[in-house]
Automatic annotation (TrEMBL):
Pathway: Alcohol metabolism; ethanol degradation; acetate from ethanol: step 2/2. It comes from the Eukaryota. Signal peptide: none annotated. The active site is at 265. The keyword Oxidoreductase applies. One of its GO terms (biological process) is acetate biosynthetic process. Pfam families: Aldedh. This is Aldehyde dehydrogenase 5, mitochondrial. One of its GO terms (molecular function) is aldehyde dehydrogenase (NAD+) activity.
Amino acid sequence: NLPLSVKIDLPNGISYEQPTGLFINGEFVKSRQNKTFEVLSPSTEEEITHVYEGREDDVNLAVDAAHKAFYSGKWSTIHPNQRAKAIYKLAELIENDLETVASIESLDNGKAIASARGDVSLVVSYLKSVAGYADKIDGRVIDTGNNYFTYTKREPLGVVGQIIPWNFPLLMWAWKVGPALAAGNTIVLKTAESTPLSALYVSKYVKEAGIPDGVLNIVSGFGKIVGNAITGHPKIKKIAFTGSTATGKAIMKSSADTLKKVTLELGGKSPNIVFNDADLKSTIQNILIGISYNSGEVCCAGTRLYVQEGIYDELLAELKTAIEAVKVGNPFEEDTFQGAQTSQNQLDKILSYVKIGKDEGARVVTGGKRLGDKGYFIQPTVFADVEETFRIVKEEIFGPVITVSKFSTVDEIVQKANDSDYGLAAGIHTTNLNTAIEVSNRLEAGTIWVNTYNDFDPQTPFGGFKHSGIGREMGAEALDNYTQVKAVRIKT
Ligand code: NAD
């Protein structure tokens, strides 16, 4: 008997109404089987609320609504300017409510409030940017001789399924729904089971923005149930997923029977490389952002730090001081840099990797311990004296844990950096432009940051090489994932 909306008092004094239902065909509804699940605050381990839990029959309803909305033509075939206007309006509605949205994100995910504001600002700027692409999706006229007139157009795919993770709940929602909407598709999206609140909250703005009923549907629930129902549904034409590489592979397999298009944004173990001539002060800041930002729960976190031998000792000493000064704790305190890990599972996973690192013979330079006994807080952790074969160097930990090792030449660092199944991102710190360009060219990664890290921009595409994914989000490239080319050949 959970009401469809509950009042929540946030720790910073803001009170708001949190929708708890599934968002199907323009309204919040109870799940068919009336099931709910608990949502916890990672910083207090206390219950925030329950929300309705979708099952296969709810996914079917959502897909029917999305299918009907697509074929009604009220979104897919209207003038793209109108889609642009609605997406832009949605961005403005979120922007006007930024403090509440950011606070919901902090409460639900445990991330520092300053970080959450950054996420929501990027949500807004991304939606505004992608709105501008809606009327720039064009085709070609092809010269196939005078007896023919041949042209191509890029059409939407139909109903798309989107499955998002818990580390950037609303940002991942925006990166998924933005381009899908701009291209004229309709959507069934599943949020992560631990962080359903922000996407449900902003759904209240969908109608006001001018997006027709059924175009954007949200089904909260679990991967094995809702996720599976989405990946197996015959009317869904494409799956866009962000999360672990293991789940990405499972999704690709289960999408094969209905031959869905699949784009995946998966894990990483990104190298962050510091040359002798780097600016030490800004490099230390970038290393911190690479590892502690968002509690290290970032797919492109700079978790393998490689430092050239001439600067190694000085950098390691400075890094230790800087990391020990990072404020970890209550996400609602303005100067907190690192909030809570998102779940008990994540905390346990990170602590188990700290033990693995010690057992492998790595030296803990600083950190490695849980902080307090309520809330999932952990010290940012630096391991030195690691070997390339160690599991803590090879495997994605998804927490604020960094390994540090030394290198001497460009050839050596390129080989070490590329010796990974992953290829999501990499960092290079140098004041030598030739080094920056040469190493950028030789690294196998979808994003290279030079003298910066975890630095996102709506117009810049993001996605992985190798096991880090398929397809690109943001930038003009994102639209390619949501359109298909039709060639029209007319005999004159
Ligand atoms: P996950 O990949 O299993 O979950 C991500 C999303 O996929 C969630 O919405 C989940 O419900 C859904 N899902 C799970 N199984 C599914 C299935 N069989 N079919 C369809 N959807 C399914 O991630 P997790 O279990 O929450 O976290 C495990 C590890 O994944 C983390 O420790 C971290 O290493 C990694 N991870 C990476 C990212 C990233 O951005 N690359 C994000 C989250 C987690």
